[in-house]
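Limitations

Structures in this collection are predictions, not experimental determinations, and the ligand pose is part of the prediction. Treat each record accordingly. The example that follows, with zinc ion as the small molecule, is included so readers can see exactly what is and is not provided: the inputs are given verbatim, and the output is the predicted complex.
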Amino acid sequence: MQRFPCPFCGLRDEREFHFVGELGKTRPDTSGPVSDEDWAHYLHMHRNEKGCVREVWMHTTCAELFAMERDSVTMEVLGTTQLRKDAS
Ligand SMILES: [Zn+2]
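Predicted complex:
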């Protein structure tokens, strides 16, 4: 069992977290038509990089989103950062 550091609550059991997606992925612009191919690419295609990755996670207990940097090989968490614009 792994423990992840929520930037709001501290170290918690991994079962309290939900993977949201890769950090920095750009959602298609919905001000105009978006093709099925563009939506499918956005929703289902992942870089799946080996090594240091930056991802968005949610701590389901506090319902906050945050960035997690981790090593995808060793699963070591390298750090977490709040994503709220009003976070200090
Ligand atoms: Zn939390």
